[in-house]
Amino acid sequence: MERLSQRRTDPLTGERYHTTFRPAPTPEIQARLRQNPKDEEENIKKRLDIYYSNLKALEGFYQDAFYVNADQDPYVIFEFIESCIIKPLPCKNI
């Protein structure tokens, strides 16, 4: 929620900022930043509700899919995906 709801865009330059992770460099830029309506908390919650309501159906349809932990080094992620495609590892269903 924090990552999405704190995104901002400079309407003059199109540059994107985040109020916590990448704040605007000057007060002048910070004053003109705008938030996209889709990034408001209420709208994010609606999108998450839709996602979770469809999740089970998607898991049933894509039974051969595998889980990828994307909080790793890109090379490690690539190697994992490649190993699943070339020689699938046995895994338990979640």
From TrEMBL:
InterPro entries linked to this entry: ADK_active_lid_dom_sf, P-loop_NTPase
Keyword rRNA-binding: no
SUPFAM superfamilies found in the cross-reference section: Microbial and mitochondrial ADK, insert 'zinc finger' domain, P-loop containing nucleoside triphosphate hydrolases
Annotated spans, Disordered: 1-23
An example Gene Ontology molecular-function term: AMP kinase activity
Biased composition (Basic and acidic residues): 1-18
Annotated family: Belongs to the adenylate kinase family.
Name of the featured protein: KAD8 kinase
